[in-house]
Design goal:
Elements lengths: L1 H16 L3 E10 L3 E10 L2 E11 L3 E17 L2 E20 L19 E22 L3 E8 L1 E7 L2 E8 L3 E7 L1
Antiparallel strand pairs: 1-2, 1-10, 2-3, 3-4, 4-5, 5-6, 6-7, 6-8, 7-10, 8-9
Length: 179
């Protein structure tokens, strides 16, 4: 009897080990997923998604990163519904150039001398978090379009204080290629 129980336990554990796994890469944006390049890994009913976007110009730099936990409510070959909970952080640096009025000094050709600008640097840090309800649609065999509506609570870091900024029910939108 013990051998039969052991054999059944082994067979059932092998059957459970064959879970469905999905790896997807793409682009997305939203208040609780972040923005930019998105990677998603799903297994059975659970999933995790990460997003990151470094964006640089001559006058500014922005880095947005986020991670989201996913729980599938219902899935079929055409899509499904899911719950999500995400955390997003951002760091933004910008420079403002102000040119003071000319002091009246001229170069040998009679042109006003250039004045060095006053450069003001500002730093903005913040994060958002919140739950959401979403749906995903599969099309063309390997593509996934996901849309969810979160209740994102947004905070800004000002000095040493974390300050409530807003409650944003803006949608998260993701377009992925499923491997």
């Amino acid at each position: 009897m013990k051998k039969i129980f052991l054999a059944l336990s082994l067979v059932s554990s092998l059957a459970i080990a064959e879970e469905t796994k999905n790896v997807s890469l793409g682009f997305g944006a939203g208040p609780t997923i972040g923005a930019g390049f998105v990677g998603r890994y799903e297994w059975e009913r659970w999933g995790v998604q990460g997003a990151a976007l470094p964006y640089y110009t001559n006058d500014s730099a922005t880095i947005i990163e986020g991670v989201t936990a996913l729980y599938s409510l219902d899935t079929n070959k055409h899509g499904g519904f899911y719950l999500s909970y995400g955390v997003v952080g951002w760091h933004r640096k910008s420079m403002l150039y102000e040119y003071p009025p000319s002091d009246g000094k001229l170069d040998p050709n009679g042109n006003p001398l250039p004045i060095d600008p006053i450069i003001t640097r500002t730093w903005t840090n913040g994060f958002a978090t919140g739950p959401g309800f979403g749906m995903k649609f599969k099309f063309l065999d390997s593509y996934v379009f996901a849309f969810d509506l979160p209740a994102a609570v947004v905070f800004e870091v000002k000095g040493n204080k974390v300050v409530f900024d807003s409650l944003r029910p803006w949608p998260n939108v993701v377009l992925l290629y499923n491997f």
